């Protein structure tokens, strides 16, 4: 036990050592959109479900999500990438701002922001729609502005790092953000970066880069080896030659690979089973079977067929080919990711290292590879030994897959998994108004975005819980402000609240989606909003955000205002009315008073005649208004 504790402390020390390390991320940035729907019946026109959209969330994807993970893990992330001048681009900028990423993206008015839209029902992805055409390349002006941004960003990070060379992460997913002139520039300027990490669907484009680490999926690694075996390109040059020539050129009829996803930890069988090919084939390639050595080749290239390759020992094959992969990529370290089977990592010493992942549904694992890449890069940049970097990278990927959505690993979560204390985890759930400023500031230093909501929460019911869960999904931290008893009486009447504030905040603090609860005496939460300066302010209701009284204040402070829908017949007033109706219908006895509802505080009310029903409370309180 003592040895395990010492190992955890050693790993936590590495996490602490990479804090504020300067990292430049360049590549294909995209927006991930998640649409959560409910379906209870099929349509008459076809055997297709009728979906009712309940909520929508967006997140940074691709290179942008790698930058977000670098920032939330404690590094100083700067992103250079082309982004469209469109709604998706605006939402992507918001995602970067909330995560604390230095946004140095280049606006491309005539090129849309790539978007991956997923529709889910019951936590199951029903379909995914991709927009963003890889055949729509950057024009000469766009390439020039991107190269200028890269040069300026490199010097900016060098300046903030006290003259030290920054770290570079290249994310090439075949969406056109890294055309040949940009790749050539990065190869020619490799000396300006201390540590270079490469995640590319097509590693053949990057041989001259000589990266510190590459993180191909098994399909990407197999495709590179197959093309080399088939003679697509010259023999591998010695590693670390420093040359600028690109290696392993594509055959003329082999266009760049299309977008695909790294899936870490997808459960074998059942809902999490990844069906179809493990890697998306290059357009124009024929589907071929994978032989025992993994090197089946067609006239135009190679692909991996999941159903034929199920019997192949992917871990053993990757381990046997690590030296070849290092030679063909020029990388010091190769980490071949194996989805459900973890990863195989090899370095200059030739000793392979194996890590394992946890099976989860596929909808939980989107972007886990970005977390793996970010942690691996930060650890190597901080000088950690390869076994330590591999261990931290796998842990970062594994702890991000607990829920549906794009995976982001936070420094405090990683430290918590190591048994350490995090910047935000040491704070109590119930806090006072005087403590809130410092607590929120501490969370923000850890890269967490803050969601704020308020209400009476008098009789906590499922509608409240669902509302708060939806609010929590809009950011990294949920602060709930609760009206005091006197404030509730002024707003709701002398017979409210039913439950005193001590009971109300205790129930809220017990919810896993609530991070902090604070009580306020005023009728308006304006002072708390000023103090918290939330990234997202949430109110319930079916009215537009413009009708929220606090909206001008929140926007002046740089935040967003969101309104969430409500669940019909789930309200405090409806619950109280049902209790009173049942009490009125039942005969009164000496041991059972006619009206069991008693105010928890405030002056008593005069009882009416036994035959007169209690005055009903207005039923405007529902989930959306969080009362």
Automatic annotation (TrEMBL):
Catalyzed reactions per annotation: D-glycero-beta-D-manno-heptose 1-phosphate + ATP + H(+) = ADP-D-glycero-beta-D-manno-heptose + diphosphate
Transmembrane segments: none
Region of interest: Disordered: 586-627
Enzyme Commission number(s): 2.7.7.70
InterPro entries: Archaeal_FAD_synthase, Carboh/pur_kinase_PfkB_CS, Cyt_trans-like, PfkB_dom, RfaE_dom_II, Ribokinase-like, Rossmann-like_a/b/a_fold
Domain Cytidyltransferase-like: 452-547
Biased composition (Low complexity): 586-600, 608-620
Protein name as catalogued: D-glycero-beta-D-manno-heptose 1-phosphate adenylyltransferase
Pathway: Bacterial outer membrane biogenesis; LPS core biosynthesis
Carbohydrate kinase PfkB domain: residues covered: 23-123, 324-409
């Amino acid at each position: 036990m003592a040895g395990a504790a010492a190992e955890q402390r050693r790993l936590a020390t590495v996490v602490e050592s990479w804090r504020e390390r300067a990292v430049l991320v360049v590549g294909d940035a995209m927006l991930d959109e998640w649409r959560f729907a409910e379906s209870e019946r099929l349509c008459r026109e076809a055997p297709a479900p009728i979906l009712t959209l309940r909520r929508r969330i967006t997140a940074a994807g691709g290179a942008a999500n790698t930058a977000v993970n670098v920032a939330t893990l404690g590094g100083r992330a700067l992103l250079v990438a082309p982004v469209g001048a469109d709604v998706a681009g605006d939402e992507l900028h918001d995602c970067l701002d909330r995560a604390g990423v230095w946004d140095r993206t280049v606006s491309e008015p005539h090129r849309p922001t790539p978007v991956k839209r997923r529709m889910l029902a019951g936590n199951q992805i029903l379909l995914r729609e991709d927009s963003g055409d890889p055949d729509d390349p950057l024009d000469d002006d766009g390439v020039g502005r991107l190269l200028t941004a890269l040069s300026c960003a490199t010097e900016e990070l060098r300046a903030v790092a006290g003259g030290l060379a920054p770290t570079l992460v290249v994310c090439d997913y075949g969406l056109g953000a890294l055309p040949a002139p940009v790749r050539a520039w990065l190869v020619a300027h490799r000396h300006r970066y201390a540590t270079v990490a490469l995640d590319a669907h097509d590693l053949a484009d990057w041989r001259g880069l000589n990266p510190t680490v590459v993180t191909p999926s098994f399909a990407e690694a197999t495709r590179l080896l197959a093309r080399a075996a088939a003679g697509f390109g010259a023999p591998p040059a010695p590693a670390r030659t420093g040359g600028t020539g690109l290696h392993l050129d594509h055959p003329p009829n082999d266009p760049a690979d299309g977008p695909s996803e790294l899936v870490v930890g997808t459960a074998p069988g059942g809902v999490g089973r990844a069906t179809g090919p493990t890697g998306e084939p290059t357009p124009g390639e024929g589907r071929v079977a994978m032989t025992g050595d993994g090197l089946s080749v067609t006239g135009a290239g190679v692909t991996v067929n999941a159903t034929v390759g199920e019997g192949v020992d992917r871990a053993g094959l990757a381990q046997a080919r690590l030296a070849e992969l290092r030679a063909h990529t020029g990388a010091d370290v190769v980490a071949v990711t194996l989805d459900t089977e973890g990863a195989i990592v090899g370095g200059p010493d030739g000793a392979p290292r194996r890590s394992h992942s946890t099976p989860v549904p596929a909808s939980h694992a989107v972007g886990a590879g970005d977390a793996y890449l970010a942690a691996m890069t930060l650890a190597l940049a901080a000088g950690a030994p390869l076994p330590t970097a591999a261990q931290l990278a796998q842990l970062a990927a594994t702890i991000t897959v607990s829920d549906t959505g794009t995976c982001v690993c936070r420094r405090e979560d990683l430290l918590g998994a190591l048994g350490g204390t995090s910047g935000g985890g040491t704070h109590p759930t119930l806090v006072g108004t005087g403590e809130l400023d410092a607590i929120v500031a501490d969370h923000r230093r850890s890269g967490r975005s803050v969601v704020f909501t308020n209400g009476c929460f008098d009789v906590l019911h499922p509608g409240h819980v669902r509302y708060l869960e939806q609010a929590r999904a809009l950011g990294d931290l949920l602060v709930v402000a609760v009206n005091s008893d006197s404030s509730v009486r002024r707003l709701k009447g002398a017979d409210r609240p039913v439950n005193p504030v001590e009971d109300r905040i205790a129930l809220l603090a017990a919810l896993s989606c609530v991070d902090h609860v604070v009580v306020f005496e005023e009728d308006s939460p304006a002072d708390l909003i000023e103090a918290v300066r939330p990234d997202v302010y949430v109110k319930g209701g079916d009215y537009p955000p413009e009708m929220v009284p606090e909206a001008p204040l929140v926007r002046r402070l740089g935040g967003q205002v969101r309104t969430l829908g409500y669940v019909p017949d789930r309200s405090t007033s409806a619950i109280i009315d049902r209790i009173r109706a049942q009490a009125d219908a039942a005969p009164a006895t000496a041991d059972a008073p006619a009206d069991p509802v008693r105010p928890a505080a405030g002056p008593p009310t005069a009882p009416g005649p036994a035959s007169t029903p209690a005055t009903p409370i207005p039923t405007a309180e529902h989930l959306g208004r969080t009362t």
